[in-house]
């Protein structure tokens, strides 16, 4: 699972959960993959991402260096920052680990890079 | 008629390793899936030359995702079958994969995707595979959560195989209840084999539905035929004293071995007034 996906995932499908965001991420094994840098795509995506969660994830994978806590106005012109965000969001693949719902503490395991978001029938 | 896969077993069991293998080996299945995915992407009507972020519901082995990649978009896929997702991992697709049940809702933050496609998945939701399953409720949960995770100009295109008109009704009613606009686009409605159902849903208000393929208004009209010709064809014999009648008579004589003048442009022609 790429960190971009992590940024979008919530646990609001569980009954009784109101926000379910951000999920707590625990990484056991991760991998770095190479992908093509597309600044236009990152710029378009950034307003849609929850930036504090991006920063939190960056700290978790030790890539927070040079990534500001808050996103400035003209991030689109900052190629360095975009490159870094590209690396964090699209090149780090979490192979094993888990996601935890912040409200109920329900654990969603990540195996072979695929988060298991299936719920039991009594949780829906 | 072949049995429908959704009658055999729930999707997470039906799409086991054997079935999943078909989706990476069988070229016919691959071709059909890619064709439908391409048509679905066309129906999404995304802005041109802009990389978009698309949700693929029931992504399976990532065949439809590959079509999205070719079109230059990024995608996240969700599927209930672990075996199918394993195949997708093996094929090294670019998109992110998530194991999830569409009937339990889409686990995404609001306003995430520029669009959603789904190839041959929606009909699975119309079945109750467990005692706790309630198709109507599951469809409603699905459409509601999908509506919220799309942007307000997005479209969602579902290719599906409805079993009967009631199923179409069930699906569209729940989609409208969840706030979507849109409707059904049927490609090649006059063909049994090529006929494909696409449910095109829009989040941003009423817009015109795209034109279906192989469904020209011209074709649907019955071609105008001359009444005379129709009567003639019905009787099976040409009108007496007409050129056709003469030609037929001559043909019969030839068959009988009688001496007959050959057919020319003068055959059956009226004499001019000089005679």
From TrEMBL, chain A:
Localization of this protein: Cytoplasm, Perinuclear region; Nucleus, Nucleoplasm
Pfam families: Trm112p
GO molecular function, one term: protein heterodimerization activity
Keywords: Cytoplasm, Nucleus
Gene Ontology terms: cellular component: nucleoplasm; perinuclear region of cytoplasm
Gene3D superfamilies: 2.20.25.10
InterPro entries registered for this protein in UniProt: Trm112, Trm112-like
Domain of life: Eukaryota
Keyword Cell wall biogenesis/degradation (UniProt): no
GO biological process, one term: rRNA (guanine-N7)-methylation
UniProt record similarity statement: Belongs to the TRM112 family.
Name this protein carries in UniProt: Multifunctional methyltransferase subunit TRM112-like protein
UniProtKB/TrEMBL annotation, chain B:
Signal peptide location: none
Superkingdom, natural source: Eukaryota
Residue ranges occupied by any 18S rRNA (guanine(1575)-N(7))-methyltransferase Bud23 C-terminal domain in the UniProt entry: 201-272
Chief place where the protein resides: cytoplasm
Entry keywords, A to Z: Cytoplasm, Methyltransferase, Nucleus, S-adenosyl-L-methionine, Transferase
Entry's Gene Ontology molecular function annotations: rRNA (guanine) methyltransferase activity
Gene3D superfamilies: Vaccinia Virus protein VP39
GO cellular component term of the entry, any: nucleolus
Subcellular location: Cytoplasm; Nucleus
Reactions catalysed, as given in the entry: a guanosine in 18S rRNA + S-adenosyl-L-methionine = an N(7)-methylguanosine in 18S rRNA + S-adenosyl-L-homocysteine
Record flagged with keyword Methyltransferase: yes
A Pfam family assignment: WBS_methylT
Chain spans, region Disordered: 244-275
UniProt GO BP: rRNA (guanine-N7)-methylation
Domain Methyltransferase: start-end pairs: 54-129
Biased composition (Basic and acidic residues): 256-266
Free-text function comment from the UniProt entry: S-adenosyl-L-methionine-dependent methyltransferase that specifically methylates the N(7) position of a guanine in 18S rRNA. Requires the methyltransferase adapter protein TRM112 for full rRNA methyltransferase activity. Involved in the pre-rRNA processing steps leading to small-subunit rRNA production independently of its RNA-modifying catalytic activity. Important for biogenesis end export of the 40S ribosomal subunit independent on its methyltransferase activity. Locus-specific steroid receptor coactivator.
PANTHER family (alphabetical): 18S RRNA (GUANINE-N(7))-METHYLTRANSFERASE-RELATED (PTHR12734:SF0), METHYLTRANSFERASE-RELATED (PTHR12734)
Subunit structure: Heterodimer with TRMT112; this heterodimerization is necessary for the metabolic stability and activity of the catalytic subunit BUD23. Interacts with GRIP1.
Family listed: Belongs to the class I-like SAM-binding methyltransferase superfamily. BUD23/WBSCR22 family.
Protein name per Swiss-Prot or TrEMBL: 18S rRNA (guanine-N(7))-methyltransferase
């Amino acid at each position: 699972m790429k960190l971009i996906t992590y940024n979008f995932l919530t646990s609001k499908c569980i009954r009784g959960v109101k926000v379910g965001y951000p999920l707590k991420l625990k990484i056991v094994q991760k991998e770095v993959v190479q992908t093509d840098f597309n600044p236009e795509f990152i710029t378009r995506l950034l307003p849609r991402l929850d930036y504090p969660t991006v920063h939190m994830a960056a700290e978790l994978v030790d890539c927070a260096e040079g990534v500001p806590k808050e996103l400035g106005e003209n991030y689109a012109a900052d190629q360095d920052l975009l490159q870094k965000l590209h690396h964090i969001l699209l090149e780090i693949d979490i192979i094993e680990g888990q996601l935890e719902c912040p409200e109920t503490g329900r654990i969603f395991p990540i195996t072979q890079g695929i988060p298991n978001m299936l719920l039991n029938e009594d949780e829906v | 008629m072949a049995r429908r896969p959704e009658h055999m077993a729930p999707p997470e069991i039906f799409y086991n390793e054997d079935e999943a293998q078909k989706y990476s080996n069988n070229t016919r299945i691959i071709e059909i899936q890619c064709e439908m995915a391409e048509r679905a992407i066309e129906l999404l009507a995304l802005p041109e030359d802009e990389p978009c972020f698309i949700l693929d519901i029931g992504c399976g082995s990532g065949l439809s995702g590959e079509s999205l990649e070719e079109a230059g978009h990024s995608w996240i896929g969700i599927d209930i079958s672990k075996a199918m997702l394993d195949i997708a991992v093996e094929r090294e697709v670019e998109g992110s994969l998530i194991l999830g049940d569409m009937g339990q809702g889409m686990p995404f933050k609001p306003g995430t995707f520029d669009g959603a496609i789904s190839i041959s998945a929606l009909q699975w939701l119309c079945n109750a595979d467990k005692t706790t399953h309630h198709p109507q409720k599951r469809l409603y949960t699905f459409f509601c959560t999908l509506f919220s995770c799309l942007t307000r100009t997005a479209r969602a295109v579902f290719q599906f195989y409805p079993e009967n008109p009631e199923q179409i009704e069930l699906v569209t009613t729940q989609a409208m209840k969840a706030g979507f606009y849109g409707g059904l686009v049927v490609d090649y409605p006059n063909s049994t084999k090529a006929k494909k159902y696409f449910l095109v849903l829009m989040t941003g208000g009423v817009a015109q539905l795209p034109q279906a393929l192989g469904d020209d208004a011209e074709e649907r009209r019955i071609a105008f035929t001359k009444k005379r010709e129709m009567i003639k064809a019905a009787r099976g014999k040409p009108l007496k004293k007409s050129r056709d009648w003469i030609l037929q008579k001559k043909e019969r004589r030839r068959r009988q071995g009688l001496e007959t003048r050959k057919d020319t442009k003068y055959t059956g022609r009226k004499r001019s007034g000089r005679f």
